[in-house]
Amino acid sequence: CGPSNVHITPNTQLTTHNTQLTTHNTMLQVLAELQQKGIRDATTEAVGTRRRAPVKMQTLAEACVDAIVCCDGMTGVPAQFALPTQLKLNILEALVVKKRLMDPFLPLLLDASILELDLRSTFITDTGLREIATRCPQLRSLDMRGCTSFTGRGVHEVLAGCPLLLVLNLSLSPQVTDQLLRSAFAGFHCTTVPTSIAATSETSDSQQHQQQQQQQQSLPQSQEQQQTGEAKVELVLQHLSLRRCRDTTPDGVLFAVAHLPNIKVLDLKWLTALNPGTIHSLLQMLPQLDSLDVGWCTLVDDNVVIDIADSTGPRLRQLSLEMDYDVTDKSIIHLARTCPNIQNLRLKNCAALQNGSVFAIASGCKRLVALDIGGCYEVNDEAIQYLPPALPELEAVGLASIAVQRATFEAFLDKCPSLRLVDAANLIDEQLREKAQAGQVHFIYAHQQRQSPQFTLYPPSFNRDYSAMPVIAF
Prior knowledge:
Strand order of the largest sheet: 1-2-3-4-5-6-7-8-9-10-11-12
């Protein structure tokens, strides 16, 4: 029959819709029952004339999740339909992995018991963030890295609706600009924004004048808020990541941090506009800061590192100075003496460093468990041999592209019983990899650094603490 012979009546459309809705509900009910009962299929091995690797069959629950994701099976399901929390998280994860998570899915998948949300590289807008603020009042961690469809208003609603939020990751988001940060944090309790940045920064006169004007525009706003007599909400956020938000200037960072006095972990990697004056102001505004990433910030030099060490002292726990070429032994030796409790230090591609820095770190930082000195071309065998006896609890080390002999490297592995993670691509072959498997040492390579974000440079023994989430990664 041709199209002219097809007649669809309203009753037919209603019947079709009811059938689809029944199918959706049945699938979700089966999925919920399986999730509650914990049913799992066994791993089977394919048999045949050729030898094949074991194939893990999908569980029925996983197959249902895939079916829901692939055919947009969440649409048309009543919002009051109850699903176990873990099942909601599984579906959310599948939607994120397949990059199909959108605002209409959230009302069914969110509830008040959810503590963490990973929405990286999804199409969530302010509407979705409003749902999160309404339905997840206990939220502790929100990862929005790579998201491109939200504004500062949506972030503001999340901060207001989730008063216990401790971790906010906005990295890799081109949306993050000074305007977005001002919109997101305006209206919350604000500390005084330092006015000394223009005098201490190494910028031109015209840039300094522009910075002073922008700061003067932001200061009256906080003063006006104080004059209203209204009690402003103080944010408890402790971990903020603005990594690779390249359209963010020092003034935007300062404005955001002025509303976050409890920050402990601050990730500013790839913010190339950061200057010594900005970093000094940040250090003065954050009395609890213990983890800082200023890698690839081209203006970081010895004076900045000394300022970081003097401002944080024994409180400093993690520091990344990757690709900061102007950092020399002078500041690292001072850092090792001033910050004895540092546990995680990333100095990758700080090409000016020599053996003296390694000696000072090994002697002064006895709690160190993760050290990356890859790309420090002046470091040699003498310094590497000194590490094992001085740092017996070392769990992760980066030695890529440095002048270390094969015999020295093997001896280093034998003398580090706690070692679990090694980045030394130029020193590894098949024989050494097999030898290391017995000691449960894992080697990573340059391509895995991009594809495997689970390889984080921090001690695996760290307790699950939202305020102590790792900021430094291989």
